[in-house]
Amino acid sequence: MQSEKMSRPEPIRRARSKSGQAAVWQARLIMLVIINVAQLWILAATVDAALARHYSLLVPLVVASGVCFLITLSIIKWWRPVSRRRTSTGYVKE
Asked: Is 51 part of any domain?
């Protein structure tokens, strides 16, 4: 009887962890979209500054674009949901 009681909460835990993983993936996607929109805005400002011959503005804009690139790279590469069931590459087993 005790084994039945212990086995029942596990499906609830799995459902919670799957919904938690879905939330993490959605948050990653939203952050990537926001960063990409900001990087497109930075690109437009860089082109505008170059065409207007305001060369002093180019260095900060290029640095800001590089920072956006590094943040995007870190989100894609390292921010994954934590799970007990992981492969050697870090992906969650189904």
From this structure: yes
